[in-house]
Structures are given as structure tokens and as C-alpha cells.
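[stage:ingest] chain + small molecule (nicotinamide-adenine-dinucleotide)
[stage:ingest] validated
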Amino acid sequence: MAKILDVNYENTFSYHIFLEEDFENLKNAVSELDTSCRRALIVTDTNIAPLYLETVKGILSTCFLFVDEVILTPGEKYKNTDSVAEIYEKAILDDFDRNDFFVALGGGVVGDMTGFAAATYMRGIKFIQIPTTLLAQVDSSIGGKTGVDFRAYKNMVGAFHMPALVYSNVNTLKSLDDIQYASGMGEVIKHALIKNKDYFDYLSEHIDELRNRDTEVLLRTVYESNLIKKAVVEVDPKEKGERQLLNFGHTLGHAIEKCSEFSYSHGQCVALGCLAAMYISGTCGAVETEAVRRLMDAVGLNTVLKAMDLDEVVLATRKDKKMDKGQVRFILLHSLGDAYIDSTVSQDQMMEALRYISK
Ligand SMILES: NC(=O)c1ccc[n+]([C@@H]2O[C@H](COP(=O)([O-])OP(=O)(O)OC[C@H]3O[C@@H](n4cnc5c(N)ncnc54)[C@H](O)[C@@H]3O)[C@@H](O)[C@H]2O)c1
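[stage:predict] done
[stage:export] C-alpha cells:
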């Protein structure tokens, strides 16, 4: 069943998240934003445009005075200031002013760049998120973190800028390739592990439906993950405390991502990082750990780290942005569904956990 969530920012209503199984309600959702005299620039990429641009543009053309599009080259490699410049250029050519809208139609890469362009074009204009990957629907479209990579530095340039609306059509997830789908599932499982044991049980009980991308189960999954992400970003929008819990699995996950030269997807690295962090936590028994592995395996996530230089991985954790006074910051579990921030994990513990996930 379709659902609507309210997200607050600084204790005031900020935007709605629509969870839908098609684009039929998009016109209705956008109608809340008073757009009839406004322009919209849809930002998407060459993979997504042939699938969804025509439908979305057709609907938005009934809501806005004028609709145009920018179609970018896909991939993290192009999440940079050059791509953002393409968005600015089109907006300038089309005479966009501060009252107009950008619309991100795509995954986290398109969403982060469109959001950043919206945060900075004319010192800030509104933007709508229409996320089309699982990762974007459960994570990156919510919370207002926007940005681009700069040279070799990931997400080095960015801004906090809240969307005016998030519209997730879960049936767009059916065209995702298996690797991208599994990558999003890495974040989904992470959400359940840090905040909600019942959600973890739900996922474990619906393994076949998740594998088959059943619409109802996807709707419930995106909804449960959105509840968690929403609650965390409402309490801590600028990542000073609670929001750091979302980094569960990311300390070793990022290090693995870097040392594997990005041959693993992000969510895959997070999943391995979650298993390592569970091991370091020492609070989940063999039965629970096995249940997590089984769920990960079922949705296409590797649960064994391929051969790599583990010393290099440990070293890479020290380059992570999430350091606390020289000590690597970890998110650990008191129990399944209950996470906390810790700054006492030693390099030996990390090495032991990496060896554990290597077998
Ligand atoms: N802002 C945040 O809070 C936040 C949080 C997590 C991650 N991120 C960022 O998100 C990015 C990763 O996002 P992602 O995993 O969505 O990757 P992505 O945006 O690169 O999309 C993955 C691939 O799937 C294609 N694609 C997208 N939707 C599709 C669909 N429905 N059908 C078929 N193909 C489709 C894209 O063209 C791309 O090739 C990273 O840059 C990361 O830094 C941001």
C-alpha cells in the first residue's frame, strides 16, 4: 500500500516522502508545491532516461509552466563539478530563477549532484528527489546531504539542502541490475541491524519476496528503512551524534572499498563492514550472525571478503573522515537492533575481524 511520510527539519515540517508503486500520484504530490508558474529542470542519466524520463516529463509538464532536462553520463566517476556545471549551464540557458525547481531522477549520484546544484544555483533553489535505486530510496534521497567528489576525494564538496519532496516508485527497482539491487540491500540490512530487530526478522521472513522484488515487500522495506532514516536525520540533521549510527559497517566498509579499488559495490562493502563490526561488538551470538549472513547471501551480497592485503585495509581506516581525536570511530551493537558509537577499537581487533570475514 502506498504511504506518505512527513520529514521535519529543525522541529518544523520540511517535506513529504511519497512511497508508491507507479508514477500515477506524482502530479498530486507535486501539486502541494505551488508549481504552476514555475519551471522544472529534470536531471537524470543516460541509463535512466530511456526508462523513465518520458513518463516523468509528461507528468511534470502538467504541473509546471516549462520542463527541460539534462542527461548526464552515469557513474561515480562523473559525480564531479564538471557534471554540476552542465546543470548550471542548462538552467542559465533556460532562464531559471530562484523560484524554479530542479528534479533529480536517478540514483544517489544524480540525487547528490542535483541537490548540490540546487543548493548553490542562485544561492539555493528548490529540488525534488525521484530516486530510482534502492540505495537512493532508502538512504540518499532523505536528509538533505548533497555533494560531489573532488579529485580523488569522495563527497569532499557539498552542502546540506533539504528536498521539497521525495517521490519513490518502488517498481523502478525492477529494472536495476542485480549488483545495484544487492548494494541497496546492504544499506537496508544495516538499517535493521542498528535500529529495529523486528524489521530484521521481517526481512529474514521475506527472503524469497526480496529476491523476486515483490512490490508489496519492497514498499514495506523502503517504508521501514525510511522510518529509520527519517527518525535519525530529524534528531541529528548535521551528523553530530545520532546520525553517525548510520555509519555502521562503514569504517571497515570504506577501507575495503578503497583497497579493492572500487571493484565491490558500496553496499557490498558496507555489508562486509557490518559483519566485521558485529564480530568486534561481540554481542551477537552464532545463531544471529548466521541469520544475518543468510539474509545477505540470499539477496546477492558476498559474506566472505576476497583475498586482499588486510594490513592495508586497517591502515586505510585511519584516513577515514570519521576519526575522533586520532582514534578510529566505530559503530557497534549492544544487541541486534541497538547500535552505539565507540572510539576504543584497536588495530588488532580490526585485523581479527577482517580475518574472520575472510573465511
Ligand atoms: N546523500 C546521501 O545521504 C547519500 C547517502 C548514501 C550514498 N550517497 C551517494 O550515493 C551514490 C551511490 O548511489 P547509487 O548506489 O544509487 O548509485 P548510482 O546513482 O550510480 O546508480 C547506480 C547505477 O544504476 C543506474 N540506475 C539508476 N536507477 C536505475 C533503474 N531504476 N534501473 C536501471 N538502472 C538504474 C544508474 O544509471 C547507475 O549506472 C554515491 O555517490 C554515494 O556517495 C549519498
